[in-house]
Amino acid sequence: MKREVEISKFLSLVLRHEPGKIGITLDENGWTDCEQLIQAAGRRGKKFSYETLVEIVRSSDKQRFALSEDGKRIRANQGHSVKVDLALVPQAPPESLYHGTVPKFIESIRESGLHKGNRHHVHLSPDLVTATKVGERRGNPVILTIRAAEMSAAGHPFYVSENGVWLTDAVPPEFIDFP
Ligand code: HQG
Fold first, then answer.
1. Ligand 1: which of 17, 75, 101, 165 to mutate, most ligand atoms within 8 Å of CB?
2. What is the CATH number of the domain that holds 65?
């Protein structure tokens, strides 16, 4: 695995799920100090410089991470399982959003809709290409179309993360079009 990808996966793990694993803490909005992160990682055999960290934030294909304006703190833009408040503001979604999944989940999704599982929200993509990539992580992708504008009008709030992932608490089956 490329070194940058390995560090990016490590950052996803500690900034979204297990900061305690390397003895760092996230503040209530998910931020942590870059220097402390670099030192804590280094103590556990993951050595990288501040310049490498900045380069990973800049080049992440999905803009997974953000630096504070002064460059001293870092957080994950979305995907957390630890409790953080990303201060997301509800936003009107486009007509349709997409969710890439795999055949084995379809029957259950038909019955109970989309659930957020371990994450804070159900993740939805604004386009088919992205949804296909998400589904392909698990196998042969199946793309579901979510009638998002209709769902929003029915009172379900939607949010969008800094890196363009649409988020909602749950999608009831009546708003899902199956292929
Ligand atoms: C499925 C990655 C059965 C759901 C991606 C999905 C995305 C159900 C899986 C981001 C279900 C959860 C999120 C139900 C949902 N019955 N299965 N009722 N409801 N599911 O990984 O959306 O690389 O938590 O279809 O690119 O796959 O981490 O969510 O297959 O943006 O930045 O349960 O994670 O981004 O899986 O992926 P996940 P996801 P990163």
1. 101
2. 1.10.10.970
**pLDDT < 50 regions, the chain:** none
From the CA of 16, give the closest atom in ligand 1.
28
**Ligand 1, residues at Cβ distance < 6 Å:** 62, 64, 79, 101, 105, 108-109, 112, 114-115, 117, 119, 123, 134, 138, 165
Residue 125 is assigned to a structural domain of this protein: yes
pLDDT of residue 131: 97
Separation of CA 134 and ligand 1 centre (Å): 8
How many domains does the chain contain in total?
Answer: 2
Say how far apart CA 118 and CA 17 lie, in whole Å.
10
Model pLDDT for residues 8-41, shown as the tens digit of each residue: 999 999 999 999 999 999 999 999 999 999 999 9
